[in-house]
Amino acid sequence: MPEKAIADTSALIALEKINLIDVLCKIYSEIILPEAVISEFGTPSINCYAIKQVEGSLIKLLMTDLNLGKGESEVIALSKDTGVRIIIDDLKARKIAETLGLNITGTIGILLKAEQLGLIENAYAKAGELKDKGFYVSDEILEDISQKRLGK
User: What pTM was estimated for this model as a whole?
Assistant: First the structure.
């Protein structure tokens, strides 16, 4: 069975907006959601998730000193404790996670993986749909997806 992943709120919202939240259960064996993510997002419409309580001084440090949100802080702290991959989009949070040596993907990475596995037909089109629905997707990211699809 595929690996587990810890998801942040933004990725859940983005995938739900384009009716693809269910691909998470097809890519990962379990989606771990910290309590803060459940508080921010609500109960997801997928059946492969587990809610985890996350505690520790790293959360306070991330929130107070680095000004991350509670959900992002709990996602990063849980990954730091467990080594499980995170699905997170916020650029500042991603940079902090990279500094901590965490295994990171984002919504666009999920779309590319879903296309690679044959779960969706076109990651580029879905990324464009996200952009049309108000999510920030840079032109550079769209171009990168287009190049990957063409095998360049």
Answer: 0.93
